[in-house]
Amino acid sequence: MTRYVFQFEEGNAPDRQLLGGKGAGLAEMSRIGLPVPPGFTITTQACNHYQELKRLPEGLMDEVWTHLALLEEKVGRRLGDSKRPLLVSVRSGAPISMPGMMDTVLNLGLNPITTEGVASLTHNRRFALDSYRRFIQMFGNVVLHMEHAQFEQILEELKQSRGAVDDTALAEPDLEELIQHYQNLVRQTVGQPFPDDPRVQLEMAIEAVFGSWMNPRAVVYRRLHKISERLGTAVNVQSMVFGNMSEQSATGVLFTRNPNTGEAGMYGEYLIQAQGEDVVAGIRTPNPIDQMARELPETYAQLSEVCRLLEHHYRDMQDIEFTVEEQKLYVLQTRSGKRTASAAVKIAVDLAKAGTISQAEAIRRQDPEQVQRLLYRQIDPQAQVDVLAVGLPASPGAATGRVVFSADEAEQRGAAGESVILVRPETTPDDIHGIVAAQGVLTSRGGMTSHAAIVARGMGKPAVTGCESLKISLSDETFTVGNEVVAKDTWVTIDGASGRVIRGSVPTIDPQLSAEFTELLQWADSIRRLGVHANADTPDDAAKARELGANGIGLCRTEHMFMGQERLPVVQAMILAESVEQRQAALDQLLPMQQSDFYGILRAMDGLPVTIRLLDPPLHEFLPDIGDSEEALAQAQVRGDVADIERLQVLLRRTRTLFEFNPMLGFRGVRLGIVYPEIYAMQTRAIFQAQAALLKEGLHPQVEVMIPLVGTAEELARMKMLTADVNAQVAAEQGVELPYAIGTMIEVPRAALLAGAIAEHAEFFSFGTNDLTQTTFGYSRDDAESKFLPTYLAEKILPDNPFMVLDRPGVGRLIEWGIKEGRAVRPDLHVGICGEHGGEPSSIAFCHEMGLDYVSCSPFRVPVARLAAAQAALE
Amino acid sequence: MTRYVFQFEEGNAPDRQLLGGKGAGLAEMSRIGLPVPPGFTITTQACNHYQELKRLPEGLMDEVWTHLALLEEKVGRRLGDSKRPLLVSVRSGAPISMPGMMDTVLNLGLNPITTEGVASLTHNRRFALDSYRRFIQMFGNVVLHMEHAQFEQILEELKQSRGAVDDTALAEPDLEELIQHYQNLVRQTVGQPFPDDPRVQLEMAIEAVFGSWMNPRAVVYRRLHKISERLGTAVNVQSMVFGNMSEQSATGVLFTRNPNTGEAGMYGEYLIQAQGEDVVAGIRTPNPIDQMARELPETYAQLSEVCRLLEHHYRDMQDIEFTVEEQKLYVLQTRSGKRTASAAVKIAVDLAKAGTISQAEAIRRQDPEQVQRLLYRQIDPQAQVDVLAVGLPASPGAATGRVVFSADEAEQRGAAGESVILVRPETTPDDIHGIVAAQGVLTSRGGMTSHAAIVARGMGKPAVTGCESLKISLSDETFTVGNEVVAKDTWVTIDGASGRVIRGSVPTIDPQLSAEFTELLQWADSIRRLGVHANADTPDDAAKARELGANGIGLCRTEHMFMGQERLPVVQAMILAESVEQRQAALDQLLPMQQSDFYGILRAMDGLPVTIRLLDPPLHEFLPDIGDSEEALAQAQVRGDVADIERLQVLLRRTRTLFEFNPMLGFRGVRLGIVYPEIYAMQTRAIFQAQAALLKEGLHPQVEVMIPLVGTAEELARMKMLTADVNAQVAAEQGVELPYAIGTMIEVPRAALLAGAIAEHAEFFSFGTNDLTQTTFGYSRDDAESKFLPTYLAEKILPDNPFMVLDRPGVGRLIEWGIKEGRAVRPDLHVGICGEHGGEPSSIAFCHEMGLDYVSCSPFRVPVARLAAAQAALE
C-alpha cells in the first residue's frame, strides 16, 4: 500500500516532488539536527489521489492518527488535552513555490477546553481567547468557505459598542462574547455547530488544503507560471510553538547576511513575547536582531550557530523565520534569501573565498541581467518620485535633464554643459549628434530595437522608447500626458531600466563596480573560453570597453563617424558628386578625418585587435528627407535664390535616385564598395595611414578590415584585392610593413550558405545577427516590433523576441552551417558574433556551444558577457 | 614522330580538336562521299608547336609536300604548272568557330606564268588577271602584314586615271598595270619581291595562318568567349574550284529547308559563271535556286541529292555553300542552318516524323526562350519603323495604342474600346486597373522586375520599362525624347521583346501556335515528369492557362482581386476599421465578391487543382499615398468640408500607423492572418462557399489553401485550425463535404530551415522563389535592379540576375534542404515552385533535379515550361 505520511525527520534525501518545497525543507532541517517544531508531511501523491477521488484516499487518516500519536509523544502534549493541549498548523506546500495561493490553518486544536489549557500554559488567557477567535475565523474562512468579511463585521460592531479602536482594546470578556458570536455565525451559515473535536478539525483542514490546490487563484497562477496541475500540494502538520509564552519567548525573521549589501552577519528583527503575525502586523515595532545578544544572549548564540549551520548546509545566504519558546529556539522556515545584485555578487565571492562554494559556483549563481544593473546609474530607491508615464525600458540607466525637442538644440546646450533629455516622436540617424550630447533619450514611438533604443544602448545612454501616452507637439515644444502639459526646459528624469518618466530632477546613485565584482569577473575570465570584444565607434567608447574588460573591438562602425556636423556636408558632397573626380575630391577631404578616427581607436586599444567595418548604410541615410528638401526648394523659389534653387534641385534629384523601397535590403554594405570602390579605398587608406603612424610611435595596432553584407565570394575577393592594393601603396609610401587581417560579416543567409566559398577569401567571419535575423525571418525589425511582433510574443507564436534572444532553430542553424563550411575550408578561421545578441546571456551560451572564438557587444554589456561566457563554459 | 597532316578523306571519326571545325567538316563530308574539293588539313597540334617554337615545327613542310603531291595527283593539276596550274585556298579552322577572327588566303599558286594557265583553262584572261591581283593584295595583307589601304589606294588612282567607276570597268591591260604597281608596292614595303614560287607562297601562308591565332582580335575574341588559347587552329589547304570557268559553272548558297518557315525544299540562290564572292558582293543579282532546275538540271538533281544526304547525315537542316565547275558540283561548306523559332519547331517535328531524329531529339533542339517568342504578337519584320527610344524588354509582345498618362484614363478609354498605351514614370498597385485596360505599358523607371514588368508579364501584356531617355511630364501629359515631344493621344507602338518604342501604329503579326508546335508540346508532355501549373488570378487567365496546357493553378493571388474600383473602397473601409465589428462589416461586404472570384476560377479549372494564396501584401498597399492624402486634407481644410476633413484625418492616421520602413519585410502574409484572423476567415469562407456551389452543380473543384510567408510552424498550425473551423462551418451550413488541401509558401529562409517542423502542418509546399531570393541575398528586387545589380552583372560578380535565373548555390541549397526536411517528415508532401523562376528553363531543370512535383509560371510561359520540363527529363 502507498504510504502517504512521513515524519519530518524520516529519510535521508527529502523528495521535493513528493513532500513539496516546504515539507522537504522541514525534513532537511530536521535531518541535519536543527531545532524545528516536530510534525509530519502528507504527500503530494495523496493530493493527486484526492483530486481523482474527490475525497481523502482510503487509509490516509489512519496513517495521520498514527503519526499524530508519534508527534504527541515527541512534544509531550496531546491534541485536545485540557492541560497540555497540542496545537498544530496545517499548511500547504507544493513542489514549486506558489506563495499565498493556497490555504493555511494555524492554531488547530483549540476549543473551549483546550483554550483554557493554553491560557494556563502561557499564563495569558487573553492570548488564548484571541487565538481561539482567530482560529474560528481562519477555519471558517478556509475550511468552511465562509466570507472573511462576515467575521470582520461582527468584530467591528463589538468594537464600536465597546468604544474600542484597536483589537487590543478588547478585554477577556469581550473576546468571550466575540467567540460566542462567531460560533453562532458558523451555525447559522453552514447549518452545523463549529467542530469542537480537534480530530475532526484536523481531517477537515487537511481536506480543505488539498481542495485549495484547485481554487481559482491557484489555477490562474499555475497557468501563468506554466506549473503542471499534476504536481499537487503536500500538507504539513506541525506543532505550534509560542513565542508569546513568556518574557523568555520571542519571534523574528532574519537574513544570514545583509541582503542589500551582502555584508556578513545576521540582519533582521524580532519581538519578545510575540507571535509571528505580530511582526508582520506592525502593531509593535520589532527590535534589530543585534539587540537579542543582550536580551536573550544564549538564544542569540544558538541562533548565530544555526545561521552558520544553515549557510554551510545550503551553501547560500538564508532567509529564516524563527520562534523562541521559553528560551528554546525553533526554526520555522529557511530559504535562499532574495538579495540585491550587488549583494548577490558580494555574498557569492565571500562564500567562495570562505571555501563554502567554488569560484565556478559563485559565477553560476549570478543572474547576468541582474548584474547588468550594477553598471548603470540608478534612481535612488529612497527617493520620492512623481511618475508621469511609463514607456519601454529601452536602454538602462537613469538620467536627469531639461526637456528639449530637437537634436540641434540638444547638441548646443549639451556642448554648453547643460543636462538635457532629448524628447522626439522617434529618432533617425540625423539625430545622432543630439543623442550624443543629451543625458538620455525619450521617444513616444518605436520599440526596444528602434533606432533610439539601439543607438542609446550602443552608447550606454539611458533611453525610454515607445512611451505612447506622450503626445508630443514639436511645433509647441511641449508634450502632454493625460491633462499634464510638460513644456520645454522642464526638468525630467528617465529610468531606462524600468521605463519610468519622472517629473523633476531625482537623486540617482552611481554604478557599483565593487572589488568583489571585479574579482568575480576575473574568475570568469579564467574560466571562459569565448573572447569578449566590444562594439565601439569612438576612442572614448573603446577606452570604456577596455576598462570593462573587452579583449578587443569586434565591431567599429564607420558610419557614425560620417555623421558629425562638420563632416556631413563633405559626405553629402561625396554622395552628390556627379563624377568620379568630384567624388574623389570629397573623399580626399574625408581621408584625414577618418584617419584621425582610426588613429584614436587603435591607440586606445593598443595591442588588442580592432575590427573596422567599412561603410555599411545606404547613402541616402546621409541625405536630408525628400520632404524637407522639397520644402526648402519651394522657399528658395519664393525667395528667387537661384544658387540655392540649383543646389536643392541637384540634391533632390540625387536623393530621389537613391530612394529605396526597402533600404534594409538595398544599396548598402559591400554593394557600395563594388559600385564606388573609391569610398572603400579612402577608408582603407585612412586605416593603414593611422596604423603606420602608430607603428612609428612604437605602438602595436592590430588591424582587422571587415567587409559588410557580403553575399558572394566574388564580392569579398574584389574588396580583398582593393584592400591589398591600398595596403601595399601605403606601406610603400610610409616605408613600413602594415600587417592586417581581412574578413567579412556573415549577415545574409546566402553568406552562411556559401560560407565555404567565402572563407577562401576571409581570415575571419563575424556573424551580424541583427541583419541575419531580419533576413532569415523576413522581418524588418523596425516594422515588426511596432506591428506584429507584440502579438506574436503575447500569443506565444515565438518564444522570445528574436532580435533579443538568438533564434537557435533558424538563425542558429545558419550560424552552425556557416562555421562548419567556413572551417572546413580554413581550419584557423576566426569566428565571432557582433549583433546585439553578443551581449545576451542565452545567445552567448549558444555561441559557446557553436565553438565561436568571441562575442562582441556594446561596452556596457562587456562585464555581463564575460560572466555569461564563463557560465556557458561551466555548463 | 607526330603526324601533322591528314588528307580530307582519311580517318573514320574526324577529330574536331585535332582538325578544327572546318577540317573535321571537310573530312566528314569527304568520308561520306560528298563532292568536296580535295585537300588536306594541318593539325592544331602543329599550331601549338608553332606557338612554342615561334617557327614551323621540324618536318612539317616535308609532310605538306607529300600530301600536296597526292592532292596534285587527285585533281590532275600541279602547283605552279603553266598549263594546268593547281590553285589552293589556305584557311584557318579552330575547334571552336571564331568567325572572321583569323586569316584566309585564296587563289594561292598564282604567278605570272600560272595566271596565263588559268586564263586558258577558264577561257577568261580578265578573270585570271583579276584573281592574281586579288591574290597579291590578300597575300600582301595576310602574310606580309601590309596595309589593305595601300593596295586600295593604288586601285583607286588607277580607276580615276581610267575614268572607271567600278572595278569591272578595268580592262586586261589596266589589270596588268595594276599587278605591276602591286608588285612594286610589295617590293618597296617589305624590301623583297613578291614571291613567285607557289611553294614558297604556301609555306608562308601556312605560317601566317598559325600566326594569326595570336592576333589581337582573336585574343580578345577568345577572352570574351572564354575559349582556351591552348586549342590552336588547324590549317586547311584545299584545291580551288572555279564557278566562273564557263556557262556550265556556277556558285551559290542554300538552306536545305526554308529557314523562315521550316517548309521542306531547298531555299537559296546561285549565280552562273561566278565565284562565291560575287554572290556576296551583290554586283549581280543571284537567281533563286529553283531556276537551276531549268538552267543546270543535272547539277540541280545532284544538289538535291546532296541536300538529302547531308540532312540525313547531320540529322538537321543545313546551310550549304557550293560551286559548280563545268557541271561538276562541289560542296565547299555545310553547317546547321540558323532558323526562326517557328522554323525550328517545324523542322524538328518534320524530321522526327520522317524518322530522321527522335521525338526526344526534336524537343532537345528547341531553345525555350526562342520558342517563347511564338506566343506573343510581334512587329511585322517587314514594317518600316521609326524608333523613338529603347528601354528594357520587360514583357514580350507588341502593342499599339494612343499614349495616355493615367491609369484612370486608360481604364475609361480602354473600356470604351480604344487602344491605349499607359505611360508612367513607374507603376504601383494603384495602377492595376489601368494596366488591365491598356494594350501595353511603358515606364521610364524600374527594371525587368519592377512592378510594371511583373504585372505585365503576369498578364501576358507587352511592357517596356526603365526607358530612361523618356522625360515624362505628367502635368503636361507629354513625354520628351531628345528634342521630340510626344503628346497624349499620339499613336505609339511598343515591342516588349526588344524594348523598342516606335512612333505611330505599326503592323503586327499574330502569335504562331502552329500544328507542329502543338504536336511538339504533346510529345513534351509525354516525356516530362514535372507538372506545369500557372499563376493566374482571374477566370480569364485561368482559362488561358488551361488552353496553353497548364495542369492546374499553382498560385492564385487574392490581392489583385482587392484592387477593383468597386472593391478598393470596401477594402479601405476594412483597413480603416477601428474595431473588430467595423472590420467584420467591411469583410461581410467583401465576402460575396471574393466568393464570385473563386467560383469563376475554380469553374474554369474544373477538375484541376487550384492553389489559392490568402492575402499577402502589407495593408498600406491598399491605401492612398500619404502625400496625396495630405494634399487632399489641405484642400478639404480650405473648403471647410468638415466631414471630409474628419475622414481624411482618420485615413492619414491609419496610413501613418501602417507606414513601414521595409514593407517587403513587414506586416504582411500570414502575419496579417495572425493579427487579423477575421480577414483570412472571410477569404476561406469565400473559397469554401464557392466550392460548395460548384459541387452542387456537379462539378469537381480541387481546392488548395495556401498560407503565405510562414516562418514558424506555429503560424501555420494556427491558420490551419482557422481554415478547418471555417471549412466545418460552411460544410455544415451547405450540407456537403468540402475536401481541401492546406499548405504554405516557403519564401523566407527560416521556413526552408524549419521545413521539417512546418511540414507537420502542411500538405504541400510552394517555394516562393521571388521573395526567397530577396531574403536569401538580402536584396530588395526593386532597389537592386535599379541600383547595383547592373554593375554586378556587368562585372560578373553574379553570373545571372538571380531574380530571373534561380541561384543554385544559395537559394537552391535552401530549396534542397527544405524538400529533404519536409519529405522526411511527410513523404507524400507535394512540392512546387511559384516564383518567376517557374517559367525559366534552367531553373526548371533545377526543379526537375530536385524532385519537385511541379513548377508554376505565368500562363504565357506555360508552353515554354512544358518544353523545358521535357528537356530536363531528357538530361
From TrEMBL, chains A, B:
Q: Name one Pfam family in it.
A: PEP-utilizers_C
Domain PEP-utilising enzyme C-terminal: residue ranges:
514-872
Record domain Pyruvate phosphate dikinase AMP/ATP-binding: where: 17-54, 56-288, 300-349
Record-annotated residues binding Mg(2+)?
E747, D771
PEP-utilising enzyme mobile domain location is 418-499
Q: Which Gene3D superfamilies match?
A: 1.20.80.30, ATP-grasp fold, A domain, ATP-grasp fold, B domain, Phosphoenolpyruvate-binding domains, Phosphohistidine domain, Pyruvate Phosphate Dikinase, domain 2
Q: Where is the active site?
A: H451 (tele-phosphohistidine intermediate), C834 (proton donor)
Cofactor(s) it depends on: Mg(2+)
Entry EC number(s): 2.7.9.1
Q: Which UniProt keywords apply?
A: ATP-binding, Kinase, Magnesium, Metal-binding, Nucleotide-binding, Pyruvate, Transferase
InterPro entries associated with the record: ATP_grasp_subdomain_1, PEP-util_enz_mobile_dom, PEP_util_AS, PEP_util_C, PEP_util_CS, Phosphohistidine_dom_sf, PPDK_AMP/ATP-bd, Pyruvate_phosphate_dikinase
Which superkingdom does the taxonomy of this entry point to?
Bacteria
Q: What class of enzyme is it?
A: transferase
* Reactions this protein catalyses: pyruvate + phosphate + ATP = phosphoenolpyruvate + AMP + diphosphate + H(+)
| Positions that bind substrate | R557, R613, E747, G768, T769, N770, D771
Family as reported in the entry's similarity comment: Belongs to the PEP-utilizing enzyme family.
Q: Please name the PANTHER family in this protein's record.
A: PHOSPHOENOLPYRUVATE DIKINASE-RELATED (PTHR22931), PYRUVATE, PHOSPHATE DIKINASE 1, CHLOROPLASTIC (PTHR22931:SF9)
Under which name does UniProt file this protein? Pyruvate, phosphate dikinase
Source organism per entry reads Sulfobacillus acidophilus
